[in-house]
Input
Amino acid sequence: MAHDVIGNIGNTPLLRLGRVTAELPGIEIYAKAEYFNPGGSVKDRPALNMILEGERAGLLTPDKVLIDSTSGNTGIAYAMIGAARGYRIKLCLPKNASPERKLILKAYGAELVLTPADEGSDGAIRKVREIYSSEPDRYFYPDQYSNDANWQAHFNTTGPEIIEQTEGRVTHFVALLGTSGTFVGTTRRLQQDVPGVDCISAQPSTGFHGLEGTKHMPTAIVPRIYDDTLASRNLWIETEDAYRMVKRLAREEGLLVGISSGGNVHAALTIAKEVQALGKKAVIVTILCDGADKYLSEHFWNNPE
Output
């Protein structure tokens, strides 16, 4: 059955990681390949839901410009869906967002407002609030960090897909936090429908890190949608470990994925080793947030290790 581009959002494959778990018998690690979405990332899901909810509420109309802050992927999703539905898109993002992300956004016709690199995603948040407050009637500001339609997209789609694809066998779910929408929505659905599932969050170990799109909550503007009561615990991820895992996934699994995906798989493998040390079995699920195409200019690919 034919779909338009928006109809192809969701229902992404769940891939078993066989070689990185070869020395962990009894442990299964699966990764949701979100780069199969037409915009190339997990952010297609919340971006579509926020736009549809804006339309239903009468807040997003053809005369409005959709404006938001982004580290890249949500912006790309907005720009793609906006192009398909006839909306103008204006985005605030840090200057140090990867060159590939900026090129993709411009290709879709989005207007970019670049904010200081050293202020990260929080600088982009402050800037978009300033622009919106000066001309609120001109813009539709979904505010991905505060919009319940963000996490609800994952409650309604990502969570049920994981349950179906694992035939309800999922024992652990782990994901890095950014807006926190993926973790919050998926966790709420899994905790509702899968008895005993253990949901673990992950964050960069410091406020200065190389994990684009993620947040170190102790030093960041905490998203309104974040619920710190959901995770059983949090894993602190080093940027270098994420880099190493990205290269391992490319060379051992044939999967070219982004940096946060590497961080997620590193977190999943950490849990796997803990579970195996206890002599238990597990079905661990994480998220491949996006592909490597937006990060091929990063220096770590050339490191010898």
Residues 244 and 303 are 10 Å apart (CA to CA). The chain is about 40% helix and 15% strand. The first helix runs from residue 44 to 56. The chain has a mean pLDDT of 95.
